[in-house]
Amino acid sequence: MSEKKMGRKIMGGHPRRTIIQLVVASVFVGAFLAIMGISPGEFWRGVFDFTRGVVNWLGDSVGEVVGNLLTYLLFGAAIVVPIWIVSRILSGSNGSSRKS
Question: Which of 17, 21, 42, 90, CA to CA, is 20 to 30 A from 51?
């Protein structure tokens, strides 16, 4: 893929147009926050405090469940990924050209 196509894919269109849209949106959002008397630091602090409050409201049990799921994911991946890699190596080029 050429650099030009990659840039358009990442930017979501022509890079110059995307940058102009981001600048205009940033000016409007910055003006709105200034009118409301909110600094960017206060905004992000509020977002993080809200997220922390939701997690605390859900309780420790949700944290335990997520922790267990991540542990199971890592343990399973330690077995599954090497087996998958070996099977891809042993299948050679036949694996990518199979037709259903």
Answer: 21
